[in-house]
Amino acid sequence: MKRYLILEDGSSYAGDGIGAMTTATGELAIQTSNYGYQEVLTDPTNAGKIIVFTTPMIGSNGINAVDYESIQPSVRGVIANDVALNITDNDTFQSLGDFLKEKGVPAIFNVDTRALVKKLQSLGPLKASIMDTNDAHAFDQIRALVLPKNKSSLVSTKNAYAAPNVGKTIAIIDLGLKHSMLRELSLRQVNANVLPYNATVRDIRSLRPDGIIISNGPSQAKEVLPYLREILDEYLGKLPILGVGLGFLAISSYLDLSLVDLPQYQNGTNFPVISQTSGEIWQTAMNIGQLVLPDDTAMTFNEEYFDLHNELLAGFSNDKMQLLAVAFNPEGAPGTADAQVIFDDFLKLVK
Q: Cis ω on the peptide bond leading into residue 334 (within 30° of 0)?
């Protein structure tokens, strides 16, 4: 079935529909990973986005039971150059088309994704819609669309829950938590307790945790910091704190570090980061639109990580404050295992 991707700048792209044959609107976003489409589609940080995959084909591996980052995907749509319609006949895998249909996510393939990448690089973020038509009324609708704010409130857990283990107790503030973060913590015997985005100091105190993690998520720092400020006031310097992705941005804003908008939103698995102490370079996964201006901070950090594409600060630690914050996703998923040592460094602060 012929379907259309229409953009707020008045352009449209025709392709073949797959998945749910519904209308969807959201923010068009580029995904540069060459693998891991299942993790991308189920990553809560991509909530509200219509994802454009730059890799030539997706879907050849199907969908499996292990690589979910959340049970229900919160992406609004998928755009691809090509999709593998048939996969190996195996009951343990589901085709991408069937998965998208089951989850209510529309997709279009046979689209010139290279042209979309160039457009976003020149114009910046665009509102977009997947529809059955590209008439004038459709464009009026997309221009009038108001995208939701604080999407963390939409994807965060509504009720606290435990991921029990036998080690140290960590309170996790869920701004858009990925399953793979819980997996990495479980492998390290962390007794995790997951709290909603608007958790209070009282909620954390009742758990008597040994440390706090502020997770990644789809919002902006200014949208979630009002919920986190009281917690940071209470616990920064008293309990070890790890911020990841949006958590990094919120902590940076709390510390009055200058956040710089990136030329292009960095969403993929191919972003090199260098340690200023060891000189070691990690290939990291990111899903972020801002980093920190390094020359604007008078703070002394024990470790700094720099994004080599933009020469901006992508992570820092301060032993006195018992603080570690990184813009990249240390669990990867998709991505390499290069940065998973961040979890070990955090647990050293905890112990």
A: yes
